[in-house]
Amino acid sequence: MVGALALGLLASASWGATFSASPTGVAGQVGSRVAEGAGCGSTFLTRSSSQSIAALNSISCNTGGLHTDNSYFRAYDMSGYPDGFDVCEVQIGIESAAAGAPGVGAGITQPMTVNVYSNTGSAFPGGTLTLVGTAAVDLADQALTVLTVPLAASVPAGALEMVLEVFTPNGQTAGHSFFMGSNNLGESAPSYLQAPACGAVVPTPTGALGFANMQIVLNASGDPGIGGPSIIEIPTLGSWGVVLLGMALAGAAFLVLRRRSAV
Fold first, then answer.
1. How far apart, in whole angstroms, are the C-alpha atoms of residue 107 and residue 99?
2. What is the pTM of this model?
3. CB half-sphere exposure, 126, CA atoms < 13 A
4. Which of 80, 214, 247, 257 lies most in the core, judged by the most C-beta atoms within 10 Å?
């Protein structure tokens, strides 16, 4: 009976999930940023015009601020990296993260997974995604920050795109709240959100969900791939070449023997 009641409460919580902003943020606050060019590698990839994190700018699929399964994506064109790209870290904007029930979760962390994919075939959200790197994060409570996650991933040569994903699993039972960091200061490609409990069963631009100002901060640092060693072709002799070489050697030998006999 108790188990059935608990399942019913969980189902009703998920059923009531909607896309909405954080109920606890303070409008007008702006958080920390990452300086362009920062990071472990020589190359800093971002789609964001600014690394500022704004309060009350992001939405998630949640009930009372407690999130269902949510995935956030950014895609990066790899046409400028013909030999691939080696990721060493991912930077993630965080508007707010609170583990445990509101007011109770101090010191508790919540799970988050960061994935790096190579994409081939067609532009994201189409194409074929292949996982090339992942990192599990125990996310501490924080607000208006940019979190750096070390992550080793190699996007291979020939990939159309590199796709970054931040996944936060359903935290309603545990009382977890997470809102991705974003701003409305411009982006060079769409931000994507996938949340099946709210009807976004595939990665969907935040603008198409009605939240065009949610331009997420999700960057990667690393180094362009290095091409393999050049192949030096060594000429080989065909059958006629072998015959001619044999005749030349035989002629040379005949001349040497003739000179010796003359002496």
1. 8
2. 0.79
3. 4
4. 214
